[in-house]
Design a protein that fits this description.
Layout (H helix, E strand, L loop, with lengths): L43 H33 L3 H29 L1 H21 L3 H29 L2 H32 L3 H21 L13 H24 L4 H22 L14 H31 L4 H7 L1 H21 L2 H18 L8 H28 L6 H34 L8 H9 L1 H5 L5 H35 L11
Length: 531
C-alpha cells in the first residue's frame, strides 16, 4: 500500500478547529516529511504568496463561471445540457486527474508540475476568451481542469517541503484560508467583472492570476521531488478516468437522448463496470493509486461518503441557483453573487463551533444534524417560485450554511483521524477527491434533472416558429430572448423543474445522514497512538 499521498506527500491533518471547510484537508505542519532546512536564498513569504495565488486560481475557477452562465447562454445560445458540460468539464477533469497529477509532481518535481499546470491553465483560459463555439469551450474547460489538477497538489506539497518546521504552521493556515475562501471571492469578482464585460471576463481573471503565479514560481519557488516514489499506477489512472467519463457523460446527455435510450443506459453501465474494474485492479496492486481496502474503516468511509454527497448537493445547488437568481428573479450577476453571501456568513462561525459540540456531544450528533439541516435547506429552497421574495432565499441559505458548517468539519476530521500516521497523506488526497468527484456528479445529475424537468413542463404556443421553439426548449436563457409570453412560460417551467431538482438534493442529503448514522454506530474511536 502506498504510504504517501499521491497528491503531495503532505503530513497529517490539523485539528478540526483550525481547518476551514474547503477543497482540501490541510496537513499538520509538524509531522510527515523531514523538516525543511532553512535554505539560504529562499524567500518563504514570496513562496507562500505565489503558491496561494496559484491555489486561488484553481479553486475560484470551480465556482466563478456559474455567475456567468445566463449571459453565456444568451450570447452563445447554449442549451441546458451544454451549460452543464461547460461547468462540469472542469470538475470532471480535475477529479479524474488529481491523484495521478499529484503523483507526477511528487516524483518528477513539484515546481515543474506547478509551472506546467499554470501554463496549461493560462493557455486554456486565453483560448476560451477567444472562442465562440460551445464544443470548443467545453473542451477548453476540461483543459483548465487538467492544469488545475497539476497545480493544486503542488501548492500544498511545496509549502510542506520548503518551509522550516517553525514556520510551517502559519504557512499551512494561510493555505487553508485561501482554499476555503477562493470560491466565494471568485463568485464576487466574476459578478463585478460581468458589469463591465461579458462572460469572457471570467476567463480573463484566470489568465491574470495564472500569469502572475507563473512568473512568481519561476522567480521564487524552489524545486523539490521524491525520486524514490513508486512508479505511477498508469493502469489504475486510465480505468478511473475512463469510468468517470463514461458515467458523467451519459448522465449529462440523458435529458437530450432520454434516460431509457440504449446509449444512455449503455454508457452508465460501462461507467459502472469500468469503476468496478478499477477497484479490482487496485486490490491487486502493490502500490495502488487508491487502495479500496481503506473503506473497510467505517469512519473513513463515512467521511468520504459525506463529503462526496454534500458537495454533490452544494455544487448542483450553485449551478441551479445562479440561473434562478438571474433569469427568474432578474438579478444582475453581481447581485446574484452577493445574494449567496449569507450562507458563508453562517458557515464560518458554524465550523468554529462544531469542535466544541463534538467534544460535548460526540462526533455523530452534530454531523448527522448538519446533514439533516442541509436537506431542510434544499426543501425550503424547493418552494421558490417566480414571485418569491428574497426572504425565502435567505431562509434556505442560512440553513444551508449552518448545516454545511456542522457536517463538513467532522467529515474532514474523520477521514484523517481514522487512519494511522503513515496514511495521513492518503486521507488528505481522499478529501480532495471526494469533493471534486461529488461536485462533478452533482452538476451532472442535478443539472440533468433540471434540464429534463424544464423540457417536460415547458408548454409553448402552437404557432411559435420551429427555430424559436428550439431555442426556448434548449434553455431558459434562450426562451428569455424571445420575450413574453414564451419567456413567462419558460420561467414557470424552470421553477417547476427547480422544485424537483432541489427535492432530489434534499433526498441525497438525507441519504448521507442515514449513511453516516449507520456507519458510525458502534464504530471504534480512532487510536490516538496512530494519529
Amino acid at each position: 500500500m502506498r504510504t504517501a499521498d499521491s497528491r503531495s506527500g503532505t503530513p497529517p491533518a490539523t485539528p478540526a478547529a483550525t481547518r476551514a471547510p474547503g477543497p482540501a484537508a490541510p496537513a499538520h505542519p509538524d509531522a510527515g516529511p523531514a523538516t525543511a532546512p532553512a535554505t539560504p536564498g529562499i524567500r518563504h513569504g514570496a513562496v507562500l504568496f505565489v503558491t496561494c495565488l496559484a491555489l486561488a486560481a484553481a479553486v475560484s475557477a470551480m465556482a466563478s463561471l456559474n455567475v456567468a452562465l445566463p449571459s453565456l447562454a444568451r450570447e452563445t445560445h447554449a442549451s441546458q445540457t451544454q451549460l452543464s458540460w461547460i461547468v462540469d468539464a472542469y470538475s470532471l477533469a480535475f477529479a479524474a486527474l488529481l491523484l495521478p497529477a499529484g503523483a507526477l509532481g511528487d516524483r518528477y518535481g513539484r515546481r515543474r508540475a506547478l509551472l506546467a499546470g499554470l501554463a496549461v491553465f493560462a493557455a486554456g483560459s486565453t483560448l476560451a476568451m477567444l472562442t465562440t463555439g460551445i464544443d470548443r469551450l467545453i473542451a477548453l474547460r476540461g483543459l483548465l481542469g487538467v492544469g488545475a489538477a497539476l497545480v493544486m497538489p503542488a501548492t500544498l506539497s511545496t509549502i510542506t517541503t520548503t518551509f522550516p518546521r517553525e514556520q510551517r504552521t502559519r504557512a499551512v493556515s494561510a493555505w487553508t484560508a485561501v482554499a476555503g475562501g477562493s470560491a466565494v471571492v471568485g463568485l464576487l469578482t466574476s459578478g463585478l467583472l460581468l458589469h463591465v464585460w461579458s462572460w469572457r471576463a471570467v476567463f480573463g481573471l484566470n489568465v491574470v492570476l495564472a500569469v502572475v503565479a507563473l512568473a512568481g514560481t519561476l522567480v521564487f519557488v524552489p524545486e523539490s521531488a521524491e525520486a524514490d516514489r513508486p512508479r505511477l499506477d498508469v493502469g489504475g489512472a486510465l480505468l478511473a478516468v475512463a469510468g468517470l467519463l463514461a458515467l458523467v457523460y451519459s448522465v449529462i446527455e440523458a435529458p437530450t437522448r432520454g434516460w431509457a435510450d440504449p446509449l444512455t443506459l449503455g454508457g452508465i453501465g460501462a461507467g459502472v463496470l469500468l469503476l468496478a474494474a478499477f477497484v479490482g485492479y487496485e486490490l491487486r496492486r502493490a502500490h495502488p493509486l487508491l487502495d479500496p481496502r481503506l473503506f473497510r474503516n467505517r469512519r473513513f468511509a463515512a467521511g468520504s461518503a459525506s463529503i462526496t454527497l454534500q458537495f454533490f448537493v452544494f455544487f448542483g445547488f450553485i449551478f441551479v441557483a445562479m440561473q434562478y437568481l438571474q433569469l427568474v428573479r432578474g438579478d444582475s450577476p453581481l447581485t446574484a453573487a452577493v445574494s449567496v453571501l449569507p450562507m458563508a456568513a453562517v458557515l464560518v462561525p458554524a465550523t468554529r463551533l462544531t469542535p466544541r459540540l463534538v467534544d460535548r456531544l460526540g462526533v455523530r450528533r452534530p454531523w448527522v444534524t448538519g446533514l439533516v439541516l442541509v436537506a431542510a435547506a434544499m426543501a425550503v429552497l424547493s418552494r421558490l417560485d417566480t414571485g418569491s421574495s428574497y426572504g425565502l432565499v435567505l431562509a434556505g441559505l442560512l440553513l444551508l450554511g449552518l448545516g454545511t458548517g456542522l457536517a463538513m468539519t467532522p467529515a474532514t476530521t474523520e477521514i484523517t483521524d481514522a487512519l494511522p500516521r503513515a496514511l495521513q497523506n492518503v486521507g488528505s488526497a481522499m478529501n480532495d477527491l471526494s469533493r471534486e468527484l461529488g461536485g462533478a456528479l452533482g452538476i451532472a445529475v442535478l443539472g440533468s434533472l433540471l434540464g429534463a424537468g424544464y423540457r417536460a413542463h415547458l408548454h409553448l404556443p402552437p404557432d411559435l416558429p420551429p427555430r424559436a421553439a428550439g431555442a426556448a426548449r434548449s434553455s431558459l436563457a434562450g426562451a428569455s430572448l424571445l420575450g413574453d409570453p414564451v419567456a413567462a412560460h419558460a420561467r414557470h417551467a424552470f421553477v417547476a423543474a427547480l422544485h424537483q431538482t432541489l427535492l432530489a438534493g434534499a433526498g441525497v442529503c438525507l441519504l448521507a445522514a442515514l449513511t453516516v448514522a449507520v456507519l458510525l454506530r458502534g464504530a471504534p474511536a480512532p487510536d490516538p497512538d496512530d494519529s
